[in-house]
Amino acid sequence: YYDLRYYAGFDHLVGNTRGIVEWVARQGWPRARVHHLPNFAPDLAGAAPADRAALGVPADALFVLTMGRLHPNKGFDVLIEALAHLPDVVVAIAGEGEQRAALTALAQQRGVDGRVRFLGWRDDQARLLAACDLFVCPSRHEPLGNVVLEAWSAARPVVAASSPGPAELIAGFDRIRNHFGIGRIAQAGALAALGDADWLAHVLAETAAARARIAAIARDNGLAALPSATNFVAVDCGRDGAFARALLEALAQEGIFVRMPGVAPMDRCIRVSCGPEPEMAALAEALPRALGALC
Known about the structure:
The chain has 295 residues and is of the alpha/beta class. The protein has helices at residues 18-26, 52-55, 76-83, 100-109, 125-131, 146-153, 164-171, 174-179, 183-189, 197-220, 241-253, 277-293, and strands spanning 13-15, 34-36, 62-67, 89-94, 116-120, 134-137, 158-161, 191-192, 224-225, 232-236, 269-273. It contains twelve helices and eleven strands. The radius of gyration is 21 Å and the shape is globular.
């Protein structure tokens, strides 16, 4: 991370991840004099989305955004390699740096230059995040990853390579994932293997496909899927909270786990998490039976 000789005159050091704190201690700095203080991000929720057409992103494309300095550590080449496996995806890279020419050439070599937008340096990240469907942090080396915090602040789903900072940030949700009985396996699925373009492409495609599949299953059963920027889709059951809860319980009897908000009027919805196709097929079979049991 850092050459600690430059900090020899300080009494205390502060690291913005636990990983940095532990690394500093392993270098011989007294453990009692190194402290963890996490970073924060501005509140980016509620910004008006940037005009997708002005960015060159078709309305029917999956819009993937990434941001950062164009440097080898940021792994944007991995994302461009992955794009070759994702025909319905457009990637926008917001940032400038020494790799601009090399990344442009790579996109041309892989035949995806028509689906990569180099946006240059931007100061409207809130609007870009509001416009995108998914944020990707493909960094090979990322001590923290402020862009991950910013994407979460804007309520955007994040796919990240398992570099130290993003991996620690995502691992911070252990208790939330375990609270819902999902655990570490699903959490591991949120971390793309470091530098593996094929796996990154797989995660992006599976996320997009599952959200579309849930929406289609809801529509086929007379329900309405709300627009989603997360790893689940809220499905409006069309009635009140009591009906939604009864549907949740009927699905549980079918072996299908869904959630629901606890506060009106959102309690008329159920929340269905994204998953692989076999789980989506199970939902497609179970939902009409569950609805039928309530008639």
